[in-house]
Fold this sequence. Notes:
This protein has 737 residues and is an alpha+beta fold. The chain folds into four domains: 2-31; 42-76 and 191-304, Jelly Rolls (Sandwich), CATH 2.60.120; 80-184, no CATH class; 311-604, Alkaline Phosphatase, subunit A (3-Layer(aba) Sandwich), CATH 3.40.720.10. The chain is 20% helix and 23% strand. Helix 2 (336-342) crosses helix 7 (488-514) and helix 6 packs parallel to helix 7 (488-514). The protein starts with 10 loop residues before the first helix and ends with a helix.
Amino acid sequence: MPILRNIPDTSAARLLALALSIAALLLDGCARPEAPPEPPQLRTVRHMVDGGLPPTTDPRLVRGAHVFLGSDSRAVVTSASAFPPTVRCEPGERGARTPCETTAPHGVPAAPSMLLVRRPRFSAAPAPDAAAPSPGTGGEHGPVAGAASPAPASSAAAAWEALVLRDGEPIALGDLDRVDLMMARTLAVPALNDRTLVTDAFQVPPDSVLRLSIGVEPPAWFVDSAPVAFRVEMRDATGETQDLFRRVLDPARRPQDRRWFDADVDLSYLAGRTVRLALVTEPAQQDDARPSLPLWGDPRLLAPAPDRRPSIVLVSLDTMRARSMSTYGYALETTPHTSALAAQGAVFENAFTTYSNTLASHMSMLTGLYPATHDVIALGNVLAARHPTLAELLRGDGYATAAFTEDAMLDARLGFPRGFSTYDENTEVASGAGDAAGTFGRALEWAGRHADESFFLFAHTYQVHWPYEPPDAYRDLFSGPDAPHANPRRRAYEQEIRYTDDVLQRFVAGLRRVVPDRDLVIVVTSDHGEEFSEHGLFTHHQLFDEVMHVPLIMVAAGRIPPGIRIATPVSLVDVAPTILALAGATVSARFDGTSLLPLLTGKATTFERPAVFAEYPASAVAPEHHFVARTADAKCLVGASDSREQCFDLRDDPGETRPRSPTDNAALGLARDQADAYRERALARRSGRDRRVRPTPAPAASGGLAATAAPSPTPTTAHDRAVDPVERKLRALGYVE
């Protein structure tokens, strides 16, 4: 043996060497024990309620999200808001209190609805402004959404009560001086004893588990609602029944019950049996007839998967422009952690948005469709049912799905929650600000709870959006004599980017602690950039490249080679088909975008497509809607009426400062033709119809419970109480005047 070559030629020495060799081999074997087998990855094999809900055309009912159980109606409450009622009082003597009749404004309830009423009593004469609602705090149970200011001291102890009304039906509230009304936009609320859903019969697979969430909608927190018992009952063909799960929630009296509760129910001992499951909600106390709003969160049957599939994390950093990131060559070290992440995968050097605001661009990101196809370009536009979302496609292929976003443009009523079993809108964010740490923290907590199954997780933050308010520890960055500019507004924006880069790094590190790198795909992008007077504005209402050019980074160990940079122009519409390809999802859908997997794997170096497209709406600087086509070498912007056009040769004018005629060269002519074609496609789809209707509520989803009841973060004026809370947020973000 080689270990004996330099040992003295004596029997004792050779025996000693042999003993040492054997010991070394034994120790080597102890140091490298055989790795234990990994636990199987779980996969959704059955969505328990997808076939159990009656057909409906109500856009507020999102199939496969949260289940609203009832005999012939489904409660759909996503928000409550205060509004000024119409108050009519009978004539009476001067200074005397008189009975008053209060009517909800016509058009507020879309169907028979729940009204929350607080009726403070005063001993003094009626106030001159008796017809206006007084601000409220939710009585003894804490704050209520849409009411921020404290109530008069004399009515502080008054409780909210629930009434049911029909549109325009008067409500006699009796002897009062002031009244607070909260409209909980719902359908009719059935009695609790009607709320049972029985699944179709199915055979229980080996080692399976039922994963579910339960909760109670916020309007039931602040009235005298009944405690609710949630039960899962097993029923088989012989008539045998067995309770598999039971939990009582009483949020009206127990503040700790005002959230979602997750549960896993072990079904392994039922393997091979054919059963039905009954999802039962009933009064916790027999014969209790008080109403409540119990919810089941997407109950799913999980079983070990035959193969491992990656978990997908899509991060959207709202308003992050590529040209302000050191990852994309910016002089300041604004994104060192993102650069380190990007070095482990691929950077798309020329990725472009599809619209110059959060709403339409995110819908493109999550559907793979241009705005001309999905048509969700304003807050009244709801995504058509014929267009599947990325979350719907992945959920249908067995993925767990969740989204964590911040309140405003990704409005749940417009179709964004479709396919997400959990859709968390963080309404606690201060007006106009972002909360990357909080939003990513909740997303990471969810990932930890679902690390045993393949998941799709979408996380979106407004952290770098206007107003730029970096934490104090970042306010001295990038302000030395070597700074490339002296613009304080832009400097604050860059400080926000640096802070967000740190938060993103902690988020990615946390993900890697709960999901092995080989099972994790991370995509980082943005919906649009920001202009700092390069073309005369401080905003993102134009589509020059400071707004249009966005980051796109994809990292997947073993799937994407590290350290590659791809110059081919790509679009946000390519994100969804690429994620599906990386997931190996067996789905079929029509996209405007295309999978970037051939570019990522080196099987292709470019795409045979003439251009990528975008739009921006009419504004103070653009009196009409504009459409944009961008190629590798040129860009053309054309107006809806063909009265305005601008073309730029990007080869010698990357700053887009010298407009050119489209007849100057072939590259400009191609861009102009493509912009024309896209404009005609968009206008043809939108002509003759106006889909800008008031959005109707979609079902709340997991995580929305605590958020919905959050108080408004800023003082609320009488005017503010009369407008949609989302409109107030958009005003703070600078989207509306």
